[in-house]
Request: fold
Amino acid sequence: MNRRKFVSLGFFGSGAGMFGYGSLIERRFPVVERVDCRLPERHAELDGLRVAAMSDFHHDDFHDDTLMARAIEATNALEPDVVMLPGDFISRDVAGMDALVVHLAGLRARLGVFAMLGNHDQWSRRSEAVAGKLEKAGVPVLRNAVTTLRAPSGQRFHVAGLESAWAGRPDPHAMLRGIASDDPVLLGWHEPDPWDWLEDRRVLLQVAGHTHGGQVCAPFYGAIQLPHLGERYVAGLFERDESRLYVTRGIGSLGVPVRFCCPPEIALITLRAPERV
Ligand SMILES: [Fe+2]
Reply:
């Protein structure tokens, strides 16, 4: 074997090995990421509130009931107060919702499970069908809407949801109309980058998905390809003044059934009162 053949064979072999690992192992085992989210002093009574987040199931693309069963079991074991599901339940085929909602109906949270729609859920006039199947399975869908809850401390807060910034008609002003000027709002909004557009002191935290964290990442480099409105804030917690953004890597895969250096994620965000010195 000449040198050129040897190098190409090695290159092909390691590529096939990475694809096999990313397809058969990494993309099938969700990881729990725990993060503390610091609150402003005026909302210290929300201290300890636990918000779980899962997004980007794309369940029609590479239907994986084992992955979903693992994700639901892991989320329920976290005993969250609230679960937020900020969109992209499917890629294009609404029929994929039937298998997905069987899993989502098994989610448990003290105060409720809430969904928001992503760009794939809203393209090609799929919004009504996707939202209808979620609602029928007992998962309320917040489309420019708000629901009011009470934390264990008795503190009133709101969970809100906007339509997709890419494919829907998000209307933050209509959504927040009627919310008192100092009430805390936890917002689900599929695309992360519009966090820059939203400056309202009521919104303490935006929970987003959309980026898949890159889905396929290169070691020491990061995401190779990112979507529109998901190029600036790729994954994890971001802070700006009193506002916070959490971007989850999501559960499913889009385009290719592979995740590499970017496993599926269940986020557990715990709200924390500011440290008193
Ligand atoms: Fe998306």
The first strand starts at residue 31 and ends at 38. The mean pLDDT is 93.
